[in-house]
Design brief:
Layout (H helix, E strand, L loop, with lengths): L5 H40 L14 H9 L14 H5 E6 L4 E5 L2 H12 L13 H24 L12 H59 L3 H43 L3
Antiparallel strand pairs: 1-2
Helix pairs in contact: 1-5, 1-6, 6-7
Length: about 270
């Protein structure tokens, strides 16, 4: 700290007050980033309400849907589509106020439903906890202290000091979380596509087997026909069945080709064989 006379120190404090007012928006944004990052980890990583209650899934059918999508069901993480997570952001900033929330009405309604419906969590989730508020207040104190220190050290100049950028760490954490959620979504999507194509392949194989059985019966009818007219009709029916079988085999071949590509992508994304 600079060596100042009492008069200079008084003026330096006035400069510090001026610098604090000029940087209040940055201080609030930094604190909001810290608080929101902590809240998002609590909700989406651990499934904990504002009051500290563990959230759990109740619907067995929904839990099965999550399992089929390779998502965990040990606790409620509100992260099936990740729409809630991605829509949370700083909405407005002012000199002494920062508003943080959901950037579209649909996700805001979903969040409200989760917090108020007896069928869901039915208690605050996205409000900041005491611990999260305390971390915000600590960050604000650190940023304010840095500005005051800078104002005194740089006397008589009035510094325009940006607070220590806690936002960078918060942004980095959010990027990592978004990347992880994106990977989870990709795994879920490719797994669903892979399973669907396997089912389609199985159904087409069953269809081909039925058509082949139908052709055998049609061939028997041709050989057993007692008149030329009956034989002609049976032969026409047999020809149609053969054409249908040829189309089914071509379709099955295209399905197998798509399935091979999907299987390769599935292995690459999930690491499974």
């Amino acid at each position: 700290m600079a060596n100042l006379t009492p008069e200079q120190f008084e003026k330096a404090l006035a400069n510090a007050k001026q610098a604090l007012q000029a940087n209040m928006g940055k201080i609030l944004v930094n604190a909001s980033s810290i608080g929101s990052a902590e809240m998002q980890r609590r909700v989406f990583n651990r499934g904990i309400t504002t009051a500290g209650k563990q959230m759990n899934y109740r619907s067995k059918s929904y839990m099965k849907k999550r399992v089929d999508a390779t998502l965990q069901v040990n606790w409620k993480d509100l992260a099936f589509t990740n729409n809630l997570f991605y829509s949370m952001t700083i909405l407005t900033t002012a000199e002494k106020e920062v508003t943080y929330g959901f950037n579209n009405g649909e996700t805001a309604q979903i969040a409200e439903w989760q917090q108020t419906s007896p069928k869901q969590v039915n208690e605050p989730i996205f409000e900041l906890s005491d611990k999260e508020i305390a971390k915000m207040e600590r960050q604000m104190s650190l940023d304010a202290l840095a500005i005051i220190q800078g104002a005194i050290d740089s006397f008589p100049n009035v510094p325009n000091i940006a607070p220590k950028d806690a936002t960078k760490k918060a942004i980095q954490r959010n990027k990592q979380k978004k990347l992880k959620l994106k990977q989870v979504k990709q795994r879920s999507s490719i797994t669903e596509k892979f399973e669907q194509q396997k089912n389609i392949k199985a159904k087409k194989s069953q269809s081909i087997a039925k058509k082949q059985e139908g052709i055998k019966k049609a061939q028997e009818r041709v050989s057993k026909a007692k008149t030329a007219e009956a034989r002609q009709k049976a032969q026409e029916s047999l020809n149609k069945k053969k054409q249908s079988l040829a189309k089914a085999k071509q379709s099955a071949l295209e399905t197998r080709t798509r399935l091979r590509k999907t299987r390769a992508k599935y292995k690459r994304i999930t690491g499974k064989k």
